[in-house]
Amino acid sequence: MNSETHPSNNWRRTGLTAFMILGAAIISVLWIRATSPNRPFDAELWRMESSTLESSDLRQHMVNDLQQNVLSRGMSRADVNSLLGKPDPGFFSDSHDLAYRLGRDSDTGTVTRHGSVVSSSGRESWLTLNFNDRDRLVEWRIVKR
Prior knowledge:
By secondary structure, the protein is of the alpha+beta class. About 40% of the residues lie in helices and about 20% in strands.
């Protein structure tokens, strides 16, 4: 009996193959969870994030949950400030009361007819909030610029 057809070698190959498939599945699940566009809102991480926005998009991953499950019309300005921290500098507009930088969108690229790639840096995304004359939240939205 040669070693290629020996039953213990077949079991080893089967076990190794199963182990590799299981490992690839675990790595895939972890990668998908890490890059998922949706993450539960965490006020502490949100406030800490303002100093590291150049290299991170954590706020972009949390903003959906923030908008759908945390913010509500009628919240006081003080509650919003307590939750989100100080607004980020750099967004100047008379039509928004507060603005928080979410991060930069992915870089974009265009292929010309000659096959070269022209890249442009992604735009910045901001969460903007507006309050009424009684300092109650009336609207919020994502603005790209």
